[in-house]
Fold:
Amino acid sequence: MKFLVAALVLLAVLVFWLWTPDRPLAELEARYLAAPGDMLEVAGTRLHVRDSGPKDAPALIMLHGFGASLHTWEPWAQSLEGDYRVIRFDLPGSGLSPPDATGDYTDARSMQIVAALMDRLGVARATLIGNSMGGRIAWTFAATQPARVDKLVLLSPDGFASPGFEYDKAPEVPALMSLMRHCLPRFMLKMSLEPAYADKTVLTDAMTDRYHDLMLAPGSRDAMMQRMAQMKLVDPVPLLKRITAPTLLVWGEQDAMIPAANAADYKAAIADATVVTLPDVGHLPHEEAPARALEPVRAFLKR
Structure:
C-alpha cells in the first residue's frame, strides 16, 4: 500500500510538472500581433497575415512548415520588403491563426486558403516561397493553378514518401505526439526542434520561447494533430511534371528531417528547376543561415 501511495504521489508530481496549459490569447496577441488589422477573414476562417513592402511591387507569398509560423520568415521579409510585396501568414491552427473553422487541414484546403488570400489582397500572380510542409503546399498550388504563380522557391520541401509517410495513406499519429495536447514543457519542445538545425546554437532562447508560446495558442495543438492525421501524400511526380513556373530548390546539406538527396528527384520532375545546396545547414536555411540562403534566392528572383 505504501508503495502504491508513493507511486501515485510520484505520478501526480510528474503530471503537474509536465502539464502545459494553453496560453491566454490576449497575452500572445500582445506579444506577437503587430496590428489588429493583421487578422483577416479569409475563406471562412481567420488568418494572421503580415503584408509589407510596396503594394505595386512583385508579390512574394511565404508558406511556413509544420509547427512554425510567419515569424520563421522574419529575416527574409526584412531584407526583401524594400523591393517586393512580402506576404506571409500563419496557416490555420498555427501561430496566431485560430484553428480552421471548417476543421479541414488537407492540402486542398490550404490551397483554397492561399487562393482566397490572394483574392482578398488583390494579388493576381505571385512567387510562392515554401519550406517543408509549406513547400509541399507551394509546389502543389503551382502545379494546379499555374496561371497564378510567377516563380517557385522551395526550401527542403516535403512531398516524397518517407518512413511513416506512405502514398495515399494517412499516417498514424504516434501516441506520444497525442500527449503534447496536454504536456509540452519548453525543454521537451526544444529537444524536438534541435534536429532541424545543423548548428544548434542558432536555436536561441528567444526563438525557443517564440515557438513554445505559439504552439500553446488556444486550439493550436489539436489543430496540429488534425493536420497530421489528415495529411495524405500522393505520388508527387505527375503533379511536379505539370509545374511550368521557374523553380529554385534550396537545401541544407545537413538536413536531418528531409534528405537533401530528394532535391535530385524534384529536379528530374520539374521542367525548369535549379538546385542550390548549402553546406553545414539543416532543415531551416532561412532561419539558420538567412543571409547565405537568401543570396541565390535574390539572384533567382531577379532573373
Summary: The longest helix spans residues 2-18. The mean pLDDT is 92. The beta strands are 39-42, 45-52, 59-63, 85-90, 126-131, 149-155, 247-252, 273-278. The CA atoms of residues 196 and 284 lie 7 Å apart.
